[in-house]
Amino acid sequence: MKTYDRIIQASLELFNEHGERAITTNHIAAHLGISPGNLYYHFRNKEEIIYQIFLQYKQFMENRLSVPVDRPIMVEDMIVYLDTAFIGMWRYRFMFHDLAGLLGRNEKFAEAYQKFVREDIIAILTKLFGEFSSIGLLATDAEEIESLVINCWLIIKFWYAFQQTQNPMGKLTEEMGRRGIRQVLALFKPHIQPMFRPLFAEIQARYNA
To answer: How confident is the model at residue 150 (pLDDT cuts 50, 70, 90)?
Structure first.
């Protein structure tokens, strides 16, 4: 693995484990066994590393939330999309622990993140929910889809931060994401068409186990 990629990977691990504010570029360099000068050869500062980590997260979400192009969407695809959302949040969880602080200190990241939410996430989820509506899974109109999209994203984005506030001294676990998925499914439940309710119940049961 190239030093550039090793820096990004190590930074992500350290930020997730200890929090971004607690980790400096010197910590990252020491963790990797390289000199600070070597790190600065690849990245001017910590903010640039965070920006590159964000680009990884953005690509992960865009790739895995895309609507199938070679077949119609299926109800079972909902599992993939739900898992993707919370895997992404877990894998890059440091970004969402103090998102407002990160955005306030990193103008480049703030601009890219706001564009990502506005032009990518909201657009992708709106298209996905529209596809689910078109196959008869959801009984929704355009206004309801817009509300569902925003409410789902709010739960996804703030779920681990919410868990942290519930138990400040506790340790976050990936398993906590399953509870978040159950909350998202609760938003969908009132809109599920009768013929799909048994299949939807099976999806819910998957995350209740």
So the answer is: very high
